Amino acid sequence: MGCASHPRYRGKPITDKPKPSKPAKTTAAPKYRSSQIGYASYYAHKFHGRPTASGEIYDMNGLSAAHRELPLGTIIRVTHMANGKSVVVKVNDRGPFIKGRILDLSLGAAKKLAMVNEGVARVKIEIVKSVN
């Protein structure tokens, strides 16, 4: 009995054939909705003169915005849902980082929308020009 040759472990048989490789996963370019409705706020003095995520220097009196997902450089139209006023701005920063908000506007853009006194307003965002 001691001379019998039996494999010690039984498992899958060893083959010389390589396993077929799985096709590489391709990541499709993110798709952004052409419009979005939600709450916007604005940011001003604390960030004035500091670099934005795009590398541009933040001008609180300019017409710019911060969005979490839209590509930097995207041009969007922002419409204040309560008064119908709109402004065209460039996304040059990331944010807002407050739950429930979709956009942070520069003070200049907030003034054009007449939302400075309210601080937060329900807005509609529409892509005017995409960078992709």
List the helices and strands and how they pair.
Elements (H helix, E strand, L loop, with lengths): L34 E9 L20 E3 L8 E6 L5 E8 L7 E6 H6 L7 E10 L3
Parallel strand pairs: 1-5, 2-4
Antiparallel strand pairs: 1-6, 2-5, 3-4, 3-6
Give the CA-CA distance, first to last residue. Answer: 73 Å
Number of domains: 1
| CATH topology description | Barwin-like endoglucanases
Class based on secondary structure composition and strand pairing: mainly beta
For the largest beta-sheet, the strand count, sense and barrel status come to:
6 strands, mixed, barrel
Quantity of strands, as a count: 6
Strands side by side in the biggest sheet? 1-5-2-4-3-6
Architecture, according to CATH?
Beta Barrel
Radius of gyration: 27 Å
Which CATH top level class fits?
Mainly Beta
Shape: globular
Uncertain ranges: 23-29
- What's the total helix number? 1
Mean pLDDT value: 85
Could you name the CATH homologous superfamily? RlpA-like domain
Structure description:
The protein is mostly beta strands and 132 residues long. The chain has one helix at 107-112, and strands at 35-43, 64-66, 75-80, 86-93, 101-106, 120-129. Strands 1-5-2-4-3-6 form a six-stranded mixed barrel. Residues 23-29 have low confidence and may be disordered.
Summarize the structure in short:
It contains 1 helix and 6 strands.
Any descriptors?
mainly beta; globular; 132 residues; Barwin-like endoglucanases
